[in-house]
Amino acid sequence: xxxxxxxxxxxxxxxxxxxxxxxxxxxxxxxxxxxxxxxxxxxxxxxxxxxxxxxxxxxxxxxxxxxxxxxxxxxxxxxxxxxxxxxxxxxxxxxxxxxxxxxxxxxxxxxxxxxxxxxxxxxxxxxxxxxxxxxxxxxxxxxxxxxxxxxxxxxxxxxxxxxxxxxxxxxxxxxxxxxxxxxxxxxxxxxxxxxxxxxxxxxxxxxxxxxxxxxxxxxxxxxxxxxxxxxxxxxxxxxxxxxxxxxxxxxxxxxxxxxxxxxxxxxxxxxxxxxxxxxxxxxxxxxxxxxxxxxxxxxxxxxxxxxxxxxxxxxxxxxxxxxxxxxxxxxxxxxxxxxxxxxxxxxxxx
Length: 350
Fold this sequence. Notes:
This protein is 34% helix and 24% strand. By secondary structure, it is α/β, with parallel strands linked by helices. It has three domains: 4-103, no CATH class; 109-186, no CATH class; 191-340, NAD(P)-binding Rossmann-like Domain (Rossmann fold, 3-Layer(aba) Sandwich), CATH 3.40.50.720. The longest helix has 14 residues, at 323-336.
């Protein structure tokens, strides 16, 4: 989620006593490098986190931010196409965007819930855009509410609208009476389970965690699965693959990369990942290794459809050789097969 780009930095600024303004991209017309729900946070020392374009408007937004941090009320700014001389501020991609600027309130219940680990499951964040006060409420899948829009009746309307939008993956603008609110689905970060604490796994852990993925490493060898070698991993499970994947709770929403290049790790890892229905299952190894593993899996009862789900040799074909290069190819393949990437491809062909 784009909120993940600013939560950590803003929490640190809050702890340091800094004042912060948050710019929320809430409407996009035409082409834009960032979707609705993208945010840029700027503190009173000029430090920034997140982004709402690829640099086209951030400089101008900072000027508006100074006014809000100086006591000006929340406001909306509009950006269209940059002029031909490139001296005007705008988007070179030809789109139009609207941005809400509000002063960040560290004590806001919705913000505090977003920052709490217990509230980072599936939820909907509702932000009032018109009037431009930025009031927020957070609703989780159980119906628990944090914060509010200022009136009980409006909160009830927002809660019903959030239920109506269940299953949506994109931020949606929706009127509530005379108000206009942005509804943002909040989902846990994508999870990637690495089987085998190899050099490729160490590189992939670093890259995947850097883009916000929740990484788990499974390997029974304590010397190999060392937290110092996997600083980006949220969890290290010191178990053999079959038990380790079960302990990690591998399921349909997870990606699994089998990176051990060793049959005693590969086969139980592949069996467990395929039986768990993981959305991505990739296996490191060349043609001969792939054939051997598929033959062994077929002998253990896996069907042709099961084996067709296996991505191997793992990663996109980009001529990668080193562990870092192989990790890049794997992460690129995982991203290309993610639900959001597939949805964008489908929309492009509509």
